[in-house]
Amino acid sequence: MASKSSAPSTAQLHETDKDDRGEMFLTGRHQEIPRHPEREFAKTTLAAGAVLWRGDVSDVSSIEVACIHRPHYDDWSLAKGKVDPGESLVATAVREIKEETGYDVRLGKLLGKTIYPVKNTTKVVYYWTGEVTGGKFTPNSEVDEIRWVPLDEAKPLLTYDLDRQVLEKAEKRFRLPATSRILYVRHGRAHDREKWSGDDNLRPLDKKGRRQSEMLVPMLAPFFPERIFSAEPDRCQTTVAPLADELALDVTVDQHFGDNAWIENQVACKEAFMNVVKLGGTSVICAQGHIMPDMIAWLSDSGRLPIDAPINVKKGGAWVLSFHGEDLTGADYMPSALPVR
C-alpha cells in the first residue's frame, strides 16, 4: 500500500498553516507596494495590519507590542484583516485594527509583506508599525484577549514564525526611530498639457485626478500629518485640498517644490525640502513628476538608505520618507490611493 503524503495540498491549507509554505518579503528599509497588488497572483486575497506598539520610541526597552488571541483559531498573532471593496491597503489596516482591537493608531514604517497559500488563493498581508493613540479594547468574536508585552516576551508568545519575523523587522525600525516623515505626493492626473492653452500652472485636475485627491485622504490621514506644503501649480494644490479640509490644515505654497524651480536652482529646492524635514513630525509635500525622483535620489545618496531600483512617481501616488535627523532611513512607495479591490 502506498504511504500517504504528510504535506497537505494547497486547497487544504488554512490560516493556521501559514508557516508551512509561507514566505516573507521584509528585507530592507525600502519597500514598495505594486501598482496592482490584487493581481500579483492568479487568485490573491489581500490583507493589511500592523505591529501595534506603545511606549517611548527613544527607549526600546519601554516599548510594548500587542499580541492578539483569536478564539476561532486559538492562536496568538498580530492584528490584521482582509481588504474590503473600495479600500486602499492603508485604509484596511486602520479599519481592521479598530474593529479587532478598538484602538486608534498612527501608522509609521511599512515593514513589508508575508505571502502564504490559503485554500485556493494566495494570501498577501502588508504590515506597518502602528503607534496606539487612543481607543479601548473590548473582547469580541474575533479577538477575545490582548496582551501588551515587551518585545522579547512577544516573540515566544506569537504562534507563527512569520509573525515573529514581522515583529523582528519592527524591532529594527524601533532601534532607528524616525524623527520626521515626509509624505511626498505627486499631484493627481490633470487635463492634457497639449489641449491646455492657458497658463500651465492653472491646468486643473481631470475627473480621475479629483478622485485620486479624495482617496488620498484615507491613505495619508492615518500617518497624522501636521502640516501640508505644495508646489505652485493648481493641480498640486488641488490634490492636497481634500486632505487639508479633513485635517483643518492650511496649505503652504512654495515654488521650490515644483519642476521649474528644480530646473533653475536645485540647491534652493534641496534647502526648502530639508527645512521641512527639520521641522520634525510628519509633513505632506505635493510636488511634480520631474523633481520627485531626482530629489529622492539625492536624499538616498546623501543619507543612510541606498535605493538602487528605479524611482517611480506615478500621478496620485506617494512616498513615505522616514528621516533620523537629516538622514533618510526609510522609503516606502505607495503608487496609488485608489482602491485595490
From TrEMBL:
Domain of life: Bacteria
Record's protein name: NUDIX hydrolase
Stretches for region Disordered: 1-23
Keyword Hydrolase among UniProt keywords: yes
Compositionally skewed regions (Basic and acidic residues) per UniProt: 14-23
Residues of the signal peptide: none
InterPro entries for the chain: His_Pase_superF_clade-1, His_PPase_superfam, NUDIX_hydrolase-like_dom_sf, NUDIX_hydrolase_CS, NUDIX_hydrolase_dom, Nudix_hydrolase_domain
A GO biological process held by the record: ATP biosynthetic process
Domain Nudix hydrolase: residue ranges: 43-172
Taxonomic path: Bacteria, Bacillati, Actinomycetota, Actinomycetes, Mycobacteriales
Biased composition (Polar residues): 1-13
GO molecular function: bis(5'-nucleosyl)-tetraphosphatase (asymmetrical) activity
Keyword annotations of the record: Hydrolase
